[in-house]
Amino acid sequence: MESQESSCSSATPERSSNPPEPVRSSTSKHRKSPKRRREEKRSQCHHQDDQEHLLLPDGEQIRLPGQHEHSEPSGSSTAEMAETSPKRRAHFLHGPYPATHFGPKACILPNPTSVMHIQDPASQRLTWNKPPVNVLVIRKIRDESLVEPFKELCHFLVEEKGMLVFVERRVVADVSLTTDETFASIRKQLCTFREGYDDISHCIDLIICLGGDGTLLYASSLFQGSVPPVMAFHLGSLGFLTPFKFESYKTEVAKVFEGNAAITLRSRLKVKVVKDMLQRTGQPGQQQYQGSGGQGQAGGQPDTEHNGLLPHGHTNSEAGNITLQMQVLNEVVVDRGPSSYLSNVDLYLDGRLITSVQGDGVIVSTPTGSTAYAAAAGASMIHPNVPAIMVTPICPHSLSFRPIVVPAGVELMITLSPDARNTCWVSFDGRKRQEISHGDCIKITTSCYPVPSICCHDLVYDWFESLAQCLHWNVRKKQARLADDVSDSSDTEN
């Protein structure tokens, strides 16, 4: 950390061990020119760790064709030099990253806990450090049409590719598989597991999904830490997240095993449900956090408000009991449940009260989930590569409450308002629905474990094709073309 600060905070050139002579004039031979200082500054920053700077996606320095290794770029920025590289189309996507520099002396402070690194989407390619061996196959259950594709895929992976295939025990226990004698030899070689009982998160190299979007959501829920690459075949009803067609599965799977496939890093949300975190004061509309670190007043008095905002730093992450912690790929939905009253919850961002949500509820979604429930509630659709968190109200009681997008990495917290008439309910990707009472809270932030989804073509083409095919985005009947001899009446008025 000290080396980063020293190399980014100033442009002072390196000095020899002998004390230099005093500089008597600007033309002294011991004083280095601004050109030489810039050259040494660039050399210092480029010799840092590969993860501490933004260069080309492959991490190589770029030089103009025919330029000497130590020569100074003639008036061109690094981005302009990258455009002339014959190796790869180079994009510079600058974001809040520790080694981002602004001008000759300003830079963002080094932050080893940064959530993600914004990079050129074209550089997101899958590679294998070692050849994959263990493959997890997820099949949509209660769908008899997937039995034959499942058997074909397992036979291909076991017999032709020599892979060790993992499947869920209830899938193998299907009657259509247990009574099939032709599949008996393959069935005996499958490794089975039970959800919630067996941990397979550390022994899977690749995930293959057969079904719709629900199969990919289910695969994500099985891995609460690092997620292996996911290859999803469209054999379900919607298929927004499943770009591959099963007709060419042998060719597509073989390409993935060889590596160098495009991937989309789908960010997830890290969610915590904390019970009994808030201690009510007994007065309507007043509450304070336990263990506020000196921010709260003694004697049970609530923190003073200023323009509706509570003082910063009034939260304590150690207070309360964490009853649930999980990774969510699509969205966290807070709604009013079976009650006929409006839902009334408070929304905090990094410990500060932002607003109260009165309506049917609120949706906190990832960019992947922006095309799901959030899109139906009126939110914008965001590409999965955009680092962001979406907050979308569900039928709000205020017409000016529009959906908002906040930066990835901030912590959102949802609590039941003190004057709420009823409790609220929360669900995570449509699962594990539970009730939230007074004193409970839901903490949401961006997870550092995204889902690497393998693309059929590339992450831009696949997403827009899904918009067109699944959501019929911008599909309309086109206007008829005017005849060549017919002109607009406005052109002939004068």
From TrEMBL:
Example GO molecular function: NAD+ kinase activity
GO process annotations (BP): NAD+ metabolic process; NADP+ biosynthetic process
Biased composition (Polar residues): 1-18
InterPro entries (UniProt xref): ATP-NAD_kinase_N (IPR017438), ATP-NAD_kinase_PpnK-typ_C (IPR017437), NAD/diacylglycerol_kinase_sf (IPR016064), NADK (IPR002504)
Entry similarity comment: Belongs to the NAD kinase family.
Pfam families in UniProt: NAD_kinase, NAD_kinase_C
Residues covered by region (Disordered): 1-86, 282-316
UniProt protein name: NAD(+) kinase
Organism of origin: Salmo trutta
EC number: 2.7.1.23
Biased composition (Basic residues): 27-39
UniProt entry keywords in alphabetical sequence: Kinase, NAD, NADP, Transferase
Gene from which this protein is expressed: nadkb
Source organism, top-level taxon: Eukaryota
Biased composition (Basic and acidic residues): 40-55
